[in-house]
Write a structure and sequence with these properties.
mainly beta; single chain; 149 residues; 11 strands
């Protein structure tokens, strides 16, 4: 009986050390939706990610990746639903195509919903539009689920 209790204690401490020993600054989730029109052409990524970078004052980052391009949205101090425009230096967006980064010169991200589904899951919905030196990104929308640990 003592060996069994010692083994269970050892297993519990080992699992706790593995999962709690790492310092996480971001939380990632997959299986979400992002769409936009880039220069009036529909754009649909193959994958979409969302994470919070806790080391940067709760920076929310949403990205959509296709085979040759990416849209990246950043809200520097995420506080929930509202309008986040790019006149504030902590908010940004970029269109990356064939390895070239085209940052937004103007635009906005609008968070329409921040729905807490459980202690560890939040659904975030929003829209976005922005202008770069070579692209007009409009009709952008996303519906992502953020899983917190």
């Amino acid at each position: 009986m003592m060996k069994k209790c010692a083994f269970i204690l050892f297993l519990t401490v080992t699992v706790a050390a593995i999962f709690c020993g790492c310092k996480k600054t971001d939380v990632v989730s997959a299986g979400m939706v992002m769409t936009a029109d880039i220069n009036n052409i529909p754009w649909r990524p193959q994958s979409t990610r969302v994470f919070i970078d806790k080391s940067k004052a709760m920076q929310l980052v949403v990205t959509g990746d296709s085979s040759a391009s990416q849209i990246r949205l950043e809200i520097g101090k995420y506080t929930g639903p509202g309008i986040y425009n790019f006149s504030i230096s902590t908010n940004a967006a970029a269109y990356l195509v064939n390895g070239n980064v085209h940052p937004a010169s103007t635009g906005e991200i609008i968070i329409t919903d921040n729905i807490v589904l459980s202690n560890s899951e939040t659904e975030i919905k929003g829209t976005f539009s922005f202008l770069t030196n070579n692209a007009f990104v409009k009709n952008g929308l996303f519906d992502v689920k953020l899983y917190l640990d």
